[in-house]
Amino acid sequence: MASRYTCPLSELNSSHVFEAGGKGASLGELMCAKAPVPPGFVVTSFAFQKFISQGDLKQIIVDTIQTLNAGKIDLAQANQQIHSALEVAAIPDEVIEAINKAEQTLQAGRVSVRSSATCEDSATSAWAGQLETFLDVTPDKIVENIRSCWLSLFSQSALSYGATHGYAAGQISVAVVVQKMIASEISGIGFSVHPVTQEPDIQLIEACLGLGEAIVSGRIVPDQFVVARHSNEILESIVGDQKEALWMGSDHSKPKWQDLDGRGTKPKITSQQVIEYSKILARLHDHYGHPIDTEWAIEDGAFQILQARPITTLANEYDQTLIDESQEWQFLVRRPFFLLAATVLPFWLDSKHADKTLGTHLNETLLIQDDTGLFNLFYAKKSLDAYMEHIGNLLQNERAHLIEILKHALGLYDQGYARIDRGLEGFDSLQEIEDFFADIAQHTTVFPAWVLIYIESNQIQDPEVQALSEEIRSHTFYPVIERRILEPLAIKTAKTLGFSKPERACELIVWSELKNGLVTRDLLESRLAAVEAGDRSIFQVIEDQETFHLVSQTGYLLTRLAKQRQLQPASHSHELTGQVAWPGVFRGRAHVVLSLDAMGQTMEPDEVLVSIQSSPALMPLLERCGAIVTDDGGIACHAAILARELRKPALIGTQQATRKIKTGDLIEVDTYHQVVRILEHDQSS
Q: Which regions form coiled coils (predicted)?
C-alpha cells in the first residue's frame, strides 16, 4: 500500500494501522474474519501527511503542541492556532482525485465518515469519542467531512487525551474511514470479556433503538445482556428505559434525536438475537486472539459489524486464577491494615484456641487490597454461617458459658496491655506472639463483635449480654499491637537484612514468611518496586495453604465478588445507585457540570465530577477529578471507557445525580456497594 491516498477496506488487515488507523485496520481484519462488514474505503494517513506537508503547516502543529506541553498556552489557544492554519489550507488535488475515484467505486448513496487515528483502538488506548464521526453523508460532502475529521485530531479534548497518553508531536496521525451507511433499526455494542468484572468467559452486550451513537454518547440507558461465552446462556438481562433515539432522516440531514413515546421500555432485541450476536462475538474473539469491544447494527434483520478494537483496560492478570472463586466469599470489613498486620488476621480465627472460644475453625480467609490501599476482608460464607449458628446456640442453651467467655475478655485487657507495653521483650518466640494475638483477638474482638451482630440481626433483647459485648468492643488492642510489636519486628528484620527502606517493611512482609525466616533482602526490594509501581496485594488462606500475589489491579475482583455486573436499587434516600465503570472508593466535594464541554470550567483533584453524560469534550475535567458520576450512560459510553482508561472510580447511569447532588456537597463514590452517598449538603448554596 505504498503511499496510496485511499485503499479499499477489503485490502486491509490489522497490520495496516500506520496507514489506515486503528479503526480502518480493524475493519479490514473483520473482513478477513468473514464478519458482516459494510463495504468502504480508507483515506490513508499518507493523505493527511500530504495535506500537512504543504508550506509550514506541520511545523505550526509541532511548535504549537510543544508550546502546549510546556504550559505556555492552554488547550483553547493550541486548538485555535492549529485550526486557523488548517482550515484555510487547500487539500492537494491528487488527494481529492483519489477520494473521488474511491467514492465512485463504492457507489453508496450515503456514507459514514469516521476518523481513524493511527494510535486509536490500540492495546492501551481507545481514543473513545475524541475524534469526529459524520453519519448519513452524501457523496458531495465527503471531502468536506474528511477535512473536519483531520482537524478533530487537534480539538481541545483530543489534545488533552493525547497528552495524557504520552503522544508527543509527530507521533500520531489520522486516517479516515468512508463506509456505506447502515440505516440502523437497532444498534449496540458487544464486549467479548466483561469490561468491569473482567470475567474471562462472560460477554456484555448492549442494545438500543436507532443509531449506536446513542449508546456511546451516554445519552440513553440501553438494554443490557450478560452472556456466558461458551454456553451462550443469557445470565442476566435488563431492559433500559430508552426515552429517545437517534435516527437518520430521509433528506440526508444530520441524524436527529426523537422522543420514543414509551416504545423504549420494551426489549430492543430478542433472546435469539442476543445469542446470535454472542456467537459472532465469540468467533471474533477467537480470531483476534484477545478480548475485543465491538459496535454493531441491525439492518433488514441482519447484523452488521461496524467496529472492533482491543479492550484497553483489562488487568494483566484478568484471566489468571488469583483467588478460589468456587468459595462463596462473604465480605466482612474494610480496614487500613498494612500487609504484615493483615496477614496475621487468619490466625485470629483458625488456631489451636479457636474451638474453645469460637466453636469452629474458619479455615478460609481472603484479603484484597484496593486502590486506596485498604484491605477488604472476606471469609467463606459456610464457615461464617456455622459460627453464627454456634453463637445462637450459646445464647439459647449455654448463656452462662457465653457470659463467662465475655467476662474473660474483660480480664484480658489489663494483662494484655501490660505485656504489649514490654514490646518484643515480652515474648520468647514468634509462635508465642502469634498465639497471644489469637487469644486476644478471639476474645476481645471477634467473639463480642459477632455476638452483637447476631443480637442485632435477630432482634434479640438481652441487655446484659449486649452491654458486656459493647464494653469489650469499646477498646481495641490492634493499633497498639501494630505499633509496639509488629512494626518494630518488621523494621528490625529489614535492617538486619540491609533493606534500603526498613520503615516500609511492614507493607511488604507476609506474617508466615516472617515467622518461618523466609524474608530476604531481594524479596523486600522487589516487592517495594512493585508496590511503588502501583501493584496491590491479594492474600488467601484455605486449609492452611497460603497464596500471595502482587497484581496490577484488584478492583475488578472486588466487583466480581460483589456480583456487580448491573444496576442495583438504592436502599437509602441519601444514596444513588449506578453501574460500575471503574472500581474504587473516593470521597470529595461534588462539582456539578451541566454543560457538555469544559469551556470555562475548572476541576480539582479532590473533587467528584457530577455530570449528565461526561462527554469526551469534558476530557480536561475528567483528567483532573478524583471520581466520576453521571446521570446517563451504559458500560460502553464514552464516560465509562475514559473512566476505565484514567482509572477513576466511576458510577454511571444514576439517572438523577445532577438533580439530587449540588456543587459543594460532600459525597462518597463507593463502587463496591454501587452507590453514591450524599454525606453532607453544602450549606453555602
A: none
Query: Which DSSP symbol is given to 210?
Result: B
Task: Name the nearest CA neighbour of 230 among 183, 193, 256, 179.
Answer: 193
One domain, residues 621 and 552: no
Check which CATH number belongs to the domain holding 202 and give it: 3.30.470.20
Q: Does residue 36 fall inside a structural domain? A: yes
Which residues, 6+ apart, have CB-to-CB distance to 318 below 8 Å? 193, 198, 200, 553, 556
One-letter amino acid for residue 583 of the chain = P
pTM of the entire predicted model: 0.75
Look at residue 353 and tell me whether its pLDDT is greater than 60: no
Do residue 81 and residue 176 come from a single domain?
A: yes
Domain termination residue (choose one: 160, 180, 200): 180
Please indicate, yes or no, if residue 220 is contained in any of the structural domains.
yes
Residue 560, CB-side half-sphere exposure with 13 Å CA sphere = 26
More confident residue, 251 or 246: 246
Q: Looking at the structure, do residues 113 and 208 belong to the same domain, yes or no?
A: no
Q: Torsions phi, psi of 130, nearest 5?
A: -75, -30
Residue-wise pLDDT for 590-616, tens only, equals 999 887 677 778 889 999 999 887 666
Structural domain containing residue 642 = 567-680
Please report the sign of the dihedral spanned by the C-alpha atoms of residue 186, residue 191, residue 192, residue 197.
Answer: negative
Q: Which three cell numbers stand for residue 131?
A: 475524534
The DSSP-derived string for 584-641 is: -EEEEEEEEE-SSS-TT----TTEEEEESS--GGGHHHHHH-SEEEESS--TTSHHHH
Buried b or exposed e, range 383-407, using 16+ CB within 10 angstroms:
bbeebbebbeebbeeeeeebeebbe
Select from 501, 535, 559 the last residue of a domain: 559
Task: Pick 449 or 101 by higher pLDDT.
Answer: 101
In this structure, the answer to whether residues 435 and 549 fall within a common structural domain is yes
Residues 394, 448, single domain; the answer is yes
Cell numbers describing residue 78: 493550541
pLDDT digits (tens, 9 = 90+) for 148-206: 999 988 888 778 766 544 444 445 688 999 999 888 889 999 999 998 899 999 999 99
| Average pLDDT of span 241-249 | 86
- Cα–Cα distances in Å, from 508 out to 317, 353, 529, 532, 560? 20, 28, 10, 11, 26
Phi, psi of 176, deg, nearest 5: -135, 130
- Within 10 Å of residue 599's Cβ, how many Cβ atoms? 11
Burial grade of 117 (CB within 10 A; 0-12, 13-18, 19 or more): buried
Name every residue whose Cβ is closer than 8 Å to that of residue 632 and which is 6 or more positions away in sequence.
218, 219, 220, 221, 612, 613, 652, 653, 655
Residues 29, 122, single domain; the answer is: yes
Q: At what angle do helices 57-69 and 45-52 cross, to 10 degrees?
A: 90
> 3-class secondary structure for 478-536?
HHHHHHHHHHHHHHHHHHHHCCCCHHHHHHCCCHHHHHCCCCCHHHHHHHHHHHHCCCE
Please tell me whether residues 175 and 34 are part of one structural domain.
yes
Q: Which residues contact 558 (CB under 8 A, 6 or more apart)?
A: 368, 370, 376, 583, 672
Provide the edge-to-edge strand list for the sheet that holds 329-335: 329-335, 375-380, 364-369, 536-542, 545-551
Domains: count for the chain: 4
State residue 638's pLDDT score.
63
One domain, residues 190 and 296: yes
Q: What are phi and psi of 41, to 5 degrees?
A: -145, 165
Residue type for 178, please?
Answer: V
Partners of 367 in the β-ladder: 377, 539
Residue tagged 487515528 (cell numbers): 117
Picking from 517, 553, 357, 530, the residue whose alpha carbon sits closest to that of residue 449 is: 357
Residue 280 is assigned to a structural domain of this protein: yes
- 319: in domain: no
CA 426/CA 105 separation, integer angstroms: 87
Maximal C-alpha separation, the chain: 96
Which contiguous run of DSSP H or E holds residue 106? Answer: helix 93-106
SS3 at position 165: coil
